[in-house]
Amino acid sequence: AEAGDGKANSGSGVGLADSIGDLDQTDWSFLDSVGFRSDSVQMPQRGLRIVYINADSLLENYLYYQDLRTKMIRKAEASEKELETEAAKLEQEIEQLQKKAEGMSEIQRSAAEEGLMRKQQNVINLRDNLTAELEREEEQLDRLFRAKVQGYFRELARREQYDYILSYHTGSNLVLGSDGLNITRRALSDLNAAYKASKKTNP
């Protein structure tokens, strides 16, 4: 049984994963020692055992995701600053050429213009490369988040013998669910406890 719909709004690359630490091998046995209770949700004795989580709340409050997102945002800001710096340099060179153009020969102007066109193309390439890199970061952030929460929910379903763990999020097909079957708070408590424990082990 898996859950965790809710699309990530920003990305993460290999650098982000490495800077946080390798968290894909979470040992969920710690749940035995942090008050993991099988009676926290009232379930029928027979029939399908179904619970659900609020994916929007999970994204907003899962510390692992928030840390990855913060690092991605910082990287995006650094990339934007780098692009702005290069674009400003090019603009200054264009202005300087315009001022000097009257005193230059046609050959000199042509050579200078060709040089500026190459630099302009370099700036365009830089923009495209940075955009592609940030898109890859976003895709990996989504993969990291899903891998982490799905690993947890698989373990939770095994322990609790849930048949289904549904995911509610804005625009989803799940329009109503009993509060007694909502395990979002419990999931966040377990996931954040696991993340905090991993940070102590791999600061």
Offer a few descriptive terms.
single chain, 203 residues, mainly alpha
Q: Hey, roughly how much beta strand do the residues contain?
A: under 5%
Q: Average pLDDT, to the nearest integer?
A: 77
Count all strands and give the number. Answer: 2
Rg from C-alpha positions? Answer: 25 Å
SSE topology string = HEHHHEH
Count of helical stretches: 5
Describe this entry's structure for a reader.
The chain is mainly alpha-helical. Helices cover 62% and strands 5% of the residues. The protein is built from 5 helices and 2 strands; from the N terminus they run αβαααβα. The protein has helices spanning 14-20, 55-61, 63-100, 106-160, 184-201; strands at residues 50-54, 164-168. The chain has a two-stranded parallel ribbon. The radius of gyration is 25 Å and the shape is elongated. The two termini are 31 Å apart. The model is unreliable at 1-24 and 34-39 (pLDDT under 50).
Question: What's the quick description here?
Answer:
62% of the residues lie in helices and 5% in strands.
